[in-house]
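Support reply, case 0932

Customer input (verbatim):
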Amino acid sequence: MTWHVNLLTLFPEMFPGPLGQTLAGRALEKGLWSFNAVNIRDFAEDKHKTVDDTPFGGGAGMVMRADIIEKALLSLPATSRRIYMSPRGHALNQRLVEELSQADGITVLCGRYEGVDQRVLDAYNFEEVSIGDYVLSGGEPAAMIMMDACIRLLPGVMGNEETPSEESFSRGADGLLEYPHYTRPAEWTTQDGRIFAVPEVLRSGDHGKVAKWRKEQSVLLTKARRPDLLK
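Our regenerated output:
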């Protein structure tokens, strides 16, 4: 079954954007996923196609109207998950990415200006999701990041089906950061003469020792860089 994304946006031309390239782009061509970018402005009824208004209570900026977003949303088939990209949302993590990649489809609302009227989020049970503690000009780039993380987990997208289970934050890696990677040459000399060699254990051919080393490295990296993951 094709994984499908409905996108509610004021800039449908932004999609697929970078997702049309590399892994995600090839998967799109193969029909492993699909998308429908709907222009919210098409559902405005005045001659200026107005989608926003001043906030109740005062304050800077404009707020996207609930009634217009609702019309755009109801023009689409219902999906099991509705996501609003928001800096105040729950942090996007690998567990959520895995869930979304297994959903029958998702609808993503991309806000602009000061955001959207809270009532449409409440009325249609939107989950608020954040990609980090910073603010973007709109939800479209955040939606692309979330989609990319989901698409690469779809069956048939990645060449090695075992790869996702070993990556940082994955359940197969016990939620740890991924171990370091090395390739040829076995000994590399920098332009200024420094020598860096691949760890001997990786050249030993002993798969048991390699697995043990990789797990140890994952634990050490996680303790040093993301100790919160060990709690």
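We compared this against your earlier run and they match. Two observations from our side: The two ends are 37 Å apart (CA to CA). The longest strand covers residues 81-91. Please reopen the case if you see a mismatch on your end.
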